[in-house]
């Protein structure tokens, strides 16, 4: 009899512990559901805003991506162009290194190209630095 009572109490304790665990899980689910509903509302608002903007903007099939981003001053345009050139040179140097690793290009070709690209990169970086100084931006 005493063993049965102990077993029942143990079971009762386990059930209470499980009940608390379930309550915690339900609270967490409610919290996550509220968060999801808020994010869904934000998403729908942003989607509607984009639709309104797209309805206002005229459909221009001849829009060139290079002309989509423009700067307010020629100095800033020069800075942007130098930055883009620098990034392209950086990519070229990376892929030349990959080609050298794979044996696609020889060492002599690699060194010639790297030397040429490094000179161009130096000019672009010097131009960027000069533009930043003239524009009053941090160097």
UniProtKB/TrEMBL annotation:
Family matches, as SUPFAM superfamilies: Endosomal sorting complex assembly domain
GO cellular component: ESCRT I complex
Gene Ontology biological process terms from the UniProt entry: endosome to lysosome transport; protein transport
Gene3D superfamilies: 6.10.140.820, 6.10.250.370
Compartmental location: Endosome
Residues forming coiled coils: 8-49
Superkingdom to which the source organism belongs: Eukaryota
Alphabetized InterPro entries for the sequence: ESCRT-I_UEV_domain, ESCRT_assembly_dom, SB_dom
Main location: other
UniProt GO MF annotations: ubiquitin binding
Domain SB: 73-139
Keywords: Coiled coil, Endosome, Protein transport, Transport
Protein name: SB domain-containing protein
């Amino acid at each position: 009899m005493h063993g049965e009572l102990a077993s029942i109490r143990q079971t009762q304790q386990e059930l209470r512990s499980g009940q608390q665990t379930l309550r915690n899980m339900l609270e967490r689910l409610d919290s996550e559901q509220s968060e999801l509903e808020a994010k869904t509302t934000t998403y729908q608002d942003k989607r509607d805003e984009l639709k309104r903007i797209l309805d206002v903007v005229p459909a221009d099939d001849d829009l060139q991506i290079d002309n989509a981003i423009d700067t307010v001053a020629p100095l800033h345009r020069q800075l942007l162009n130098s930055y883009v050139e620098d990034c392209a040179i950086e990519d070229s140097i990376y892929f030349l290194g990959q080609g050298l690793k794979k044996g696609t290009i020889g060492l002599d070709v690699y060194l010639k190209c790297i030397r040429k690209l490094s000179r161009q990169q130096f000019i672009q970086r010097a131009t960027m630095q000069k533009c930043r100084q003239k524009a009053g931006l941090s160097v």
